[in-house]
Design a protein that fits this description.
The protein is α/β, with parallel strands linked by helices. Helices cover 57% and strands 10% of the residues. The protein has two domains: 145 residues, Rossmann fold, CATH 3.40.50.300; 61 residues, no CATH class. It is globular. The C terminus is likely disordered.
Length: 239
């Protein structure tokens, strides 16, 4: 089974890319949904968040109530230290949920799975996928889209954009880049071209049914990423 990571930035057009991928019958693990799942009151990560941030991040500020996402956002987006704490709680929980779903797809004999992860790079998940796809759009377009879509002020929109790694830096990690700089039809065609490029070979898909070979393939992916190194760190060393 081939596992591919898809990332972008807020308002970069990644959701449109995912919609196109789904029309091809390729399963997509939506990590935004998983991030919402792991902060529900029934999940262990919920208690960890409340222990650190207090009940003020909850609706009605009461234990057992859902997370107040707006209030939580006003705490973590402007504050890098608080954001790191939140990520240290949420990211491991999301990774566990991803692995559960990947195992189910492998049991079913699925050839290709896309993991839709906004924080693919920040959460270090890029190290365990065979390919990284980045959806890119220019910063000014990204800012205009989020202001229009979410009704945010420019400062609030910038706070959300700046909470993520700049898109231009994410491109350094990409095996494939989908440029969202034109209309929706152009974006759809670009997505289809990339999907055709990453289509797994049926022979390797067949071999992946055998656990020893699956372990070998997974080890190869991790080692390849490890020896290839972090593009940003390598670039800074070469300066």
């Amino acid at each position: 089974m081939k596992v591919v990571g898809l990332t972008g930035g807020i308002a970069s057009g990644k959701s449109t890319v995912v919609s196109t991928v789904l029309t091809l019958g390729i399963p997509v693990i939506d990590c935004d949904k998983l991030a919402r799942l792991v902060v529900e009151p029934s999940h262990p990560a919920y208690k960890k968040l409340v222990d650190h941030f207090g009940t003020e991040i909850l609706q009605n500020q009461q234990w057992g109530q859902p997370l107040d996402r707006y209030k939580f956002g006003t705490i973590i987006f402007p504050d890098a230290a608080q954001r790191r704490v939140a990520n240290s709680i949420i990211h491991p929980a999301v990774r566990d949920e991803i692995l559960k779903r990947l195992f189910k797809y492998w049991i079913k004999g699925t050839a290709l799975v896309i993991i839709d992860v906004p924080l693919l790079l920040e959460g270090e998940l890029w190290r365990i996928v065979s390919d990284v796809i980045v959806v890119y759009c220019p910063p000014d377009v990204q800012l205009a889209r989020i202001k229009d879509r979410d009704g945010l002020s420019e400062s609030d929109a910038l706070a959300r954009i700046n909470a993520q790694r700049p898109l231009i830096e994410k491109v350094d990690y990409a095996d494939h880049v989908i440029y969202n700089t034109s209309d929706l039809e152009t974006l759809r065609i670009s997505t289809l071209k990339v999907m055709d490029t990453i289509k797994p070979n049926p022979f390797w898909t067949y071999l992946a049914y055998f656990p020893p070979f699956t372990i070998l393939m997974a080890t190869w992916v991790v080692l390849r990423r490890h020896f290839k190194g972090d593009p940003r760190k390598m670039a800074s060393k070469n300066k």
